[in-house]
User: Fold Protein polybromo-1 from Accipiter nisus.
Amino acid sequence: MKMLENSFAMCNLTKLKNHEYETLDQLEADLNLMFENAKRYNVPNSAIYKRVLKMQQVMQAKKKELARRDDIEDGDSMISSATSDTGSSKRKRYALLYKKNIRKQRMKILYNAVLEAREPGTGRRLCDLFMVKPSKKDYPDYYKIILEPMDLKMIEHNIRNDKYVGEEAMIEDMKLMFRNARHYNEEGSQVYNDAHMLEKILKEKRKELGPLAEDDDVASPKLKLSRKSGISPKKSKYMTPMQQKLNEVYEAVKNYTDKRGRRLSAIFLRLPSRSELPDYYVTIKKPVDMEKIRSHMMANKYQDIDSMVEDFVMMFNNACTYNEPESLIYKDALVLHKVLLETRREIEGDEDSHVPNVTLLIQELIHNLFVSVMSHQDDEGRCYSDSLAEIPAVDPNFPNKPPLTFDIIRKNVENNRYRRLDLFQENMFEVLERARRMNRTDSEIYEDAVELQQFFIKIRDELCKNGEILLSPALSYTTKHLHNDVEKEKKEKLPKEIEEDKLKREEEKREAEKSEDSSGSAGLSSLHRTYSQDCSFKNSMYHVGDYVYVEPAEANLQPHIVCIERLWEDSAGEKWLYGCWFYRPNETFHLATRKFLEKEVFKSDYYNKVPVSKILGKCVVMFVKEYFKLCPENFRDEDVYVCESRYSAKTKSFKKIKLWTMPVSSVRFVPRDVPLPVVRVASVFANTDKVDEEKHTEALEDSKVGESILHLEKDKEDVPVEMSNGEPGCHYFEQLCYNDMWLKVGDCVFIKSHGLVRPRVGRIEKMWVRDGAAYFFGPIFIHPEETEHEPTKMFYKKEVFLSNLEETCPMTCILGKCVVLSFKDFLSCRPTEISENDVFLCESRYNESDKQMKKFKGLKRFSLSAKVVDDEIYYFRKPIVPQKEPSPLLEKKIQQLEAKFAELEGGDEDMEEMGEEEGDMTETPSMPQLQTPLASELDIMPYTPPQSTPKSVKGSTKKEGSKRKINMSGYILFSSEMRAVIKAQHPDYSFGELSRLVGTEWRNLEATKKAEYEGMISGYPPVLPPLQGPVDGIVSMGSMQPLHPGVPPPHQLPPGMPGIPGIPPPGVIGQNVSPMVGTPAPGASPFGQQIGILGPPGQQAPPPYPGQSPASQPVMQQPTTPMFVSPPPKTQRLLHSEAYLKYIEGLSAESNSISKWDQTLAARRRDVHLSKEQESRLPSHWLKSKGAHTTMADALWRLRDLMLRDTLNIRQAYNIENV
Assistant:
């Protein structure tokens, strides 16, 4: 019982008999304690353990059954009292306490599962190295690599003090601890494996406990009754869409492999330690690796894909900054950078889809403005633009101006011929101002024109939001300017109109006098008229103010509509009426495009008398304000008319009636059940023939307008400017037209550039004309491909850089207009007349001298005179997010490096192909047996060819082979010479700084010089003494056929195989050398037998397979690494020349070697005491198992002794004196 601090048994349940349990939760807590104690003490496969699990399930099922029963009872009881409220509050309080205890118990169970986990077989506790964080004194670099240390002691403290809000927080800390262990320690080490195993145990234990109870499971039963299902919802196991995208990007980079199956991301998973590469952290200011990116992703620190891409780009940029341009890691960084960007492009789709199309937006704004103005109606539903349809297209006072009407403007709008709002406004105002000039101030047309112009300004400001959406010179004309113009116009026209009215009244008076004189001679009958307010005719009564149908003058016409104003009877007994005539639309003169209300008539200026005998019937004419709401009693709908305007037959014009002055009718009006809709119909003159004729006219007008499409530009003029420091004979301009292209100071243009893929961009800061030729002066913007930068650098799409170059260019070299915006403007606005393809972004200046890009605050702005027409600027409702694209050098650099590596690997491929061909003729022999007890005592990991190296093996032979191949380049020769020179000039520079300077010098080297170095390396012999003969049993000959007696040896190298001076080709034994087994030939170099290399450079003899073939069989070489070569830490991080250079720099005059080999030879197992941490770092993965030895450390010591013994045997057998 010493293992269990809180023991509990069934016999202790006397508390139940004594009614000491206040709640069911307290009883459950004691039972759970008893069950967990039993599970901790007994083996999981024992009978007691299984019974405990069964009893726990029974308890949980019974608890749910009791809870459901309580729910039903509470649901049936609807009594609300103080007692029930008290019970409810107690239940809630107990539920909260129970919930807290359950969570804490679960966390303790999970913690104990990790604490008590042991290694199968040995019984070693797996958590020993996770209890306390490493010492800062012993492992100072740990706290520089691991930013958030975590250990089990801290987790236990948090559980005990209720620091965790929930179980998930504790699990996250556990996972953080395991991630830290895997990040800091080598893959395959004991700590690394223990972290994997403990995380797996934690996951299985959590799965065994089941899902965590949600809040609703311990809530009020009444709340549970309202739910459709009693099952608590589990936490979603699915990632959000953004998390899925981030994970997809990360996995694409991590899992990318080249054509040989090599995973390129392996070296980027973890940063190098400071002890390994201390200068790395001096050179690289912001180190980052894929483990850190993954931890940020798991912690939801990335809000979008771009933020993750930025970290990846920084990581690749760090690799290219630190490593040399022709290294393998440099190439891998570029390839993964490309994979990253391609994956992002696939996920996010079209990058430019979010940039608004400003041209379409401007056309839409103009279209909406035009439709709104043309559809503007008064209170009665009359369109103001109807009266303006009769305006002539040309003003007689200005006959030379091109014709312009609303129809022409409508066609221009429909054909998207307007790119500027101010030009559209000028055309609209020209039509409206012409209507005002040609009509009286009291006419309907004049008033409608003013109303439409005022409405245009109002809608324009709403659509442009007073310049917040569209900034245009058109906004400078406001309602205040319109009122001033109208008042000024009225003051000019009113005196003339008053004089016209006076003359008109005098003329009417004279005509009235003439009519009276003519009627006076007709007799005395007029003196005997008897006037009355009503009269009867044909059983109908007619009153003053009634509307009647009068017989038309011609039989084929419709009856006239007359309003009775007077009734009388003459001396002869004949009854007469006098009144005002109302005209139907077909009785007026108007354009066929004019629209009318249904049943509309017009009050005319014609009055006359008619005999009552010509009355055909009654009708009703209503004012427009009453027509749609009221209806007359006892009248058919076809006899009811509406009037809203008067018609002048003399001027053939319409004018809206403001005040209805007709006599009061005797007809009674009642409200309509449903108000009539306002419907306007086309004129009766708009028949088919008329429409066809108009279509023909429109086609002619379209052809004319089509010819003048180029003229739909705002009128501009050349604007000269005085220059105080100008050259004599030069005429300077702020605005100038050149080759039908209007240019102004501050504009950007495309310039012809010879030898470049894209034309350069120049900005006009001065322009002048001299001797008939035009010139401009300004700075030049260059594209990214014209700058020097790392291939991993990313640029905004359409980004350019302001250079130090300022040029004077003739305007003949201008190809077209464009615009360069600052970063802020590029995100928020666009000029309306420039295509999106011609819009560029500039936020940096490129200094040619130091090859640096520096950001600046903004581009230069110019202040011009009022005569210069400013650009219209459209502002986006929401700023765009510009996307970055890879450097144009990326693909080119990748292709160059791939071609370089392919060339270097060509020899190996030829050797492999030759080996395959020879393999068809001769069966591949196996390796000779190693003459040591190694095979029997140690279980060595089998040899794996590089082509099938598992991805889990760190520092694969393929990577090492690649590094050896890279050494064969002209750059290495150049580096060995130049590094010494730079080192002498800058002795205090670090290795990384020297590497960067060497790389810069190599990049600046002329192509001919580079070719010379490449030519030198092609004939460079390896630093090896010549081999004088074979060494059987030790040396394996690559791609060698066995020689049969009587077959002469070949004396030519196979195609593509590099020749090595002093070394015979494969299958050729040195002349005059007798093959001996176990003894070298006389005069043979002892190094030849030890090195044992024959084949392409970079290949070494593979480890022999123990006991697979007799020693007498000929053997063939397989490309691999030496069998027992202790790899340096993280060998895959060493560059192609870095290992060699470090070796050279590590030599000193006091010692002939770098390592302390004498201390290593003197070391003994009994003298060395390793801590558990040091033992965990031993390369135990070299051996498959410990074999007959007690521990893996003993097995490794035995391996070391055997290797030393074999070395001495080789030395003695071949009389090697100077090893």
About this structure: The chain has a mean pLDDT of 75. The CA atoms of residues 247 and 615 lie 92 Å apart. The longest strand covers residues 600-611. The chain has 35 helices and 33 strands.
